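To whoever is covering the structure queue this week,

Two jobs came back overnight. Logging them here so there's a record in the thread.

Job A:
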Amino acid sequence: MQTTIGSIKYFCTAYNFYKRLDGCMMLPNVTPAEKPNLTTCPECNASIPVIQGFVTWCSSCNWNLKPDQTGEPKNLFEKIYISAGRKTGDRLLQSMIRNGTKIPKFSISRILAICAASIVHLISLGLFAFGCFLIIRHPSSVVMLIYAAFFLTLAWVTRPRMNKLPSKPLSREQYPVTYQIFDEITSVLHSDKIDYILINSDYNAFYTEVGLKQRKAISLGLPLLSILDKQETVALVSHEIAHGINGDINRHSFLSTAIHTLATWHALIKPERYFNTRDHSIVIAIGMFFANLLLGTLALLMYVILFAICHLNWRDSQRAEYMADACAAEVAGSEAKLSLLKKLYSGNKTFEFSVLKVINNKTLGPLLQEFRRRFKSIPDREIERLDRLRTLTDSRLDATHPVTAHRIAFIRSLDAGQPLYQLSEEKYEQFINELSSLSTKIETEIMDNYKRNVLGI
């Protein structure tokens, strides 16, 4: 009986997952070579092709472009950043095009953001000091020791943290070509060498600094690398390396920990309901109302400080992304960077669908091979639809990035010179061969994660 219920649950979850990817996937037996049927646009009466498995839309009036359903922001931090971007994103883009991407080392907004973050960390330090004071002042009082343990625990939970490596990095001895490529690109950008290179299972990439010495680390998603050509790979690596030289304070633990601490405090203390008579008597509900009012006031204070830090830091953070785009375009070429952005934007849903197909169909080839096949088979009309969406909506890779259409406009405004670094075909093949040893492990990790986190099995 449990097996039957589990199968039904899996089927329903998988069906909902297919529906979520509706319009972004290709059915298993469909190829772009098939001649599409035609239908009439209900808005302008133009003839439009119908390609099975993809969104039917009108290129004349943009009917049914079907923007991505990105849903609500994942957390309070994303909500604030997206709000700031909608208000001032256009002005920042024009400023970048006119004045370039140089980020000042010191600015009023940056100093104020650091001061606000310092207040957060001082509060954590104050909690620790108060807990120690209670222990020293009342060593024999059980009640005071309980209070002391509470404050010390709270101080520990909200302490500043150094970023840590999320997984084991590649070794220079086993992956010499990979590190050589990174070293050559850092040399072109006049940057320090990258200390750690990691390969993960995400359709993404990121730069971070870890430990007390703030070692430079870059993590690249193997699914993303699997569909990039050699210059797009150079653009991806250049973009991430640039984050280490563009003064992006978001990459440092001091500010990011303060933001995380504030968001955690806000989530913990904000009351769901101020007056609750459904679960409590009227007397208890009245008493809890005043307690919830105090907690709500504290939560509002946390939100105000978080709002201030995010807004003070938003401009520098967005400029850092533009600067990284400019570096990538200079090193790899503008066309390679633009192509990379398109693949970052358009490949994610195809990747998710490929994962589900491989899980459901054991006869299909390896996951990344299936993903490459499906990505290459996306028809030109679907690519055009996604291009229009990028132009007409405020789609972005995540909350900390500028709108994708703005990034494309900025890259196109740059002087298109020859790429500063050309990756040879031979070295690129060696790079791919080195990473191929990780494919089986990464593919297994991807499918296990989807079974557990998406399908619930």
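Job B:
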Amino acid sequence: MPDEFLVLPSDLSAEFAAIKAKIANALDKLECCYQKKLKRSLSANIEKLEKGKAVIEFGSEQHASGSNGQSTLVERSLESVDRQKSEPVTLD
């Protein structure tokens, strides 16, 4: 066995533990990156809403929010919620 490498089971478990730790760290970093990106996007959208320049989508409809549009958007969204509540649901 001059060129072969012998791996003991205890060595394998240590290697797998190290790999699991590296993967967990990479996933944690990826999660933090996505959370930061989402927070930036949400804060930008909130700023747009405060300025009255945002476009809000309800299903296939698009409405631009403004001083007059905000109340109609709320009314339309409440109407759609009321419609959904009044429609009977059947389970097959």
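Note for Job B: The first strand starts at residue 55 and ends at 58.

Please reply-all if you pick these up so we don't duplicate work.
Q.
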